[in-house]
Design brief:
- By secondary structure, the protein is an alpha+beta fold.
- It has three domains: 3-77, 434 Repressor (Amino-terminal Domain); 83-140, no CATH class; 159-233, no CATH class.
- It is 31% helix and 47% strand.
- The chain is built from eight helices and five strands.
- The strands form two sheets. A three-stranded mixed beta sheet has the order 1-4-5, with no helix packed on it.
- The radius of gyration is 27 Å and the shape is rod-shaped.
Length: 236
């Protein structure tokens, strides 16, 4: 195995890639990768450039093995990728891709990365059924900015929203806006708050009993779902 072949082999193993995985990434055959690694052939210059770019190293390091320490720190310190060998409908079971390049994506059933897209996702920007991130979009979403069916965040928008600023069908927050909600300030249909503007607003500082709240809502707005009445009447 020559220096280049050995380097390609080690880089591939570090990322948990098979020869076929790397071949697909570089748009070559698996046999080509096998020949490179065994030393039976060497990649053409355009393939060398693609390999160096993919693994975030210089051509000099790829071809000679010499590492510029400063460049190594800049290019490799925050670069990590793992992709499981198990796939579901063509999607990796686990994909972790953390890179100094902010637009780096991780796509998998479980996705962790700068931009994470998966059933369960964790990232600076995360999209999935269950999502955690700075900017989060999901059925269940938790993040600084959260958007989803159930969203929890500093600024939260969703069917059920919890946050400092919450906007949703049901909202709970310091500033709460929605059809039903609880907050220091509420604006919407029916809510419980210190201050606000609503069709029916209960003062959080002088709440009536649970029974009185439920009876009041039932009398004035009979179509209100029972779980909403229970939700609003359990404020303490």
């Amino acid at each position: 195995m020559n220096n280049i072949g050995n380097k390609i082999y080690n880089l591939r193993k570090e990322k948990g890639l098979s020869q076929e995985d790397l071949a697909n990434i570089l748009s070559v055959s698996r046999q080509a990768v096998q020949k490179w690694e065994s030393g039976n052939s060497k990649p053409e210059i355009d393939k060398l450039i693609n390999i160096a770019n993919y693994f975030s190293i210089s051509l000099d390091e790829l071809c000679t093995g010499k590492v510029n320490e400063k460049e190594y720190i800049n290019n490799r310190r925050f670069n990590y990728e793992y992709k499981s060998k198990s796939y579901v409908y063509g999607i990796p079971l686990v994909h972790i891709n953390i890179n100094s390049k902010i637009n780096t994506q991780a796509k998998g059933i479980l996705a962790i990365g700068n931009i994470a897209i998966g059933i369960v996702s964790l990232g600076f920007i995360s999209i999935g059924l269950l999502s955690f991130g700075f900017l989060s979009l999901a059925l269940l979403s938790i993040g600084l900015f959260a958007f989803g069916g159930l969203s929890i965040g500093c600024i939260s928008i969703g069917l059920f929203a919890i946050g400092s600023i919450a906007y949703g069908y049901m909202s709970l927050g310091a500033l709460s806006v929605g059809k039903y909600g609880i907050g220091a300030y509420f604006k919407g249909h029916i809510g419980v708050a210190d201050k606000g503007s609503a069709d029916l607003l209960f003062d959080i500082n002088s709440l009536p009993s649970k029974e009185q709240i439920i009876n009041k809502i039932s009398r004035d707005y009979p179509k209100t779902p029972n779980f909403i009445k229970t939700f609003l009447s359990n404020v303490k």
